[in-house]
From TrEMBL:
Keyword vocabulary terms for this entry: DNA-binding, Transcription, Transcription regulation
Protein name from the UniProt record: TetR/AcrR family transcriptional regulator
HTH tetR-type domain ranges (all copies): 17-76
Pfam families on file: TetR_C_43, TetR_N
InterPro entries in the cross-refs: DNA-bd_HTH_TetR-type_CS, Homeodomain-like_sf, HTH-type_TetR-like_transc_reg, HTH_TetR, Tet_transcr_reg_TetR-rel_C_sf, TetR_SbtR-like_C
DNA bind region: 39-58
Lineage: Bacteria, Bacillati, Actinomycetota, Actinomycetes, Micrococcales
PROSITE patterns registered for this protein in UniProt: HTH_TETR_1, HTH_TETR_2
Length: 224
């Protein structure tokens, strides 16, 4: 028999609602730090609740991930649509990419979800809702790319899939940044973005790695 606390048609008791919030907050932190290989048991421990409590709220980590990342995908889609209202097509495109990459830099789980070829390729198989929401990003991103090309600020042979590839390539740069203790991913993102410009220009936002940092960064990246 399903208890009142577990029934989806009735309000959660105060303690059950508190435990659910603890699990959601802990899940966000653990997925952000460890990626989607983290287990529901680990998340329960981080939340300070029993494993049984975790499984009463979420059948598995997939269900928990869907609850956590649905908001992120909605915010990214809204960000892409809002960028279409920015007057400067280049700044609109770059602003969206920078915002998206910055979110991924702070959240390994989000990066893994966004850059999977298919959701089935991930160590976690979330429901179709997230895959649909991720795919829904493609429409406004395509519009951002085409508007910038029409304006002449984006190279004519650029494609929307180039943006997805850039997001994927940033993963190793996040690892390198963590290893050296500064956000060198911003430098490499700008190198990639500058390659998309019809006329590359502008100073890179982060100084280059020195030799010792390079060795540290590459060692960390190889382990990623």
């Amino acid at each position: 028999m399903t208890s009142t606390a577990d029934s989806p048609t009735r309000p959660l008791r105060r303690d059950a609602a508190r435990n659910r919030r603890l699990l959601l907050d802990a899940g966000r932190e653990v997925f952000a730090a460890r990626g989607l290989e983290a287990t529901l048991d680990e998340i329960a421990h981080h939340a300070g609740v029993g494993v049984g409590t975790a499984y009463r709220h979420f059948a598995n980590k997939q269900e928990l991930a869907a609850a956590i990342f649905a908001d992120d995908f909605e915010q990214l889609a809204a960000s892409a649509r809002a960028a279409l209202e920015v007057d400067d097509p280049w700044q609109a495109l770059v602003g969206f990419i920078e915002t998206t990459v910055a979110k991924q830099a702070d959240d390994r789980g989000l990066h893994e979800l966004m850059t999977a070829g298919t959701m089935a390729e991930q160590p976690i198989h979330v429901d179709g809702k997230l895959e649909t929401m991720r795919d829904a990003l493609f429409e406004p991103v395509t519009a951002l790319v085409e508007r910038a090309k029409k304006n002449g600020c984006l190279r004519a042979d650029a494609a929307p899939t180039d943006i997805a590839a850039i997001l994927f390539m940033m993963g190793v740069n996040f690892t390198m940044s963590e290893a050296v203790g500064r956000p060198v991913w911003k430098r490499y993102l700008w190198l990639l973005l500058d390659g998309l410009r019809a006329t590359p220009c502008g100073k890179l936002p982060v100084e280059a790695l020195d030799f010792d940092e390079l060795q540290t960064a590459l060692t960390a990246a190889k382990k990623h």
